[in-house]
Amino acid sequence: MNQERLVKIIEDLQECLGDIEECLEILQGDCDNEIMIKLSKSSLRQLFVSFHTILEEFASIMLKEIKKYKIGMTLNDSLVVLKDKNIIDKDLYDFLEKSRLLRNRISHRYKEPNHEELMEHILKYKSNFKRIIRIAKKHLRD
Question: Domain range for residue 11?
């Protein structure tokens, strides 16, 4: 596996998750600054999409590692293979499917989730975002 690429993916996932957590702090806090709230809502949407873009890159290198990569594979197809190969478990797969669909609604601008729906999803599944990073780290060589 390309270790340099994996390190960059992990760094990007961690940074993205850290930025998501900062947005959540502002949105859940007692911030009276309307501009900060507006920017945090907008940033949260974009960071959520970015996290999934990075996730696609991680899925790609994992599939290459197990010799299951095919050009043009969808993220959905990739997640099925990763689940079938026990790289992710069913619970994480179910979360990623829900998350992927929510990301698509944001990216393709149909039935876009409102701010509350997105925030609720992120808060409910926060530990799963961290699990993805832990799974990626398992593939680092010493």
Answer: 3-138
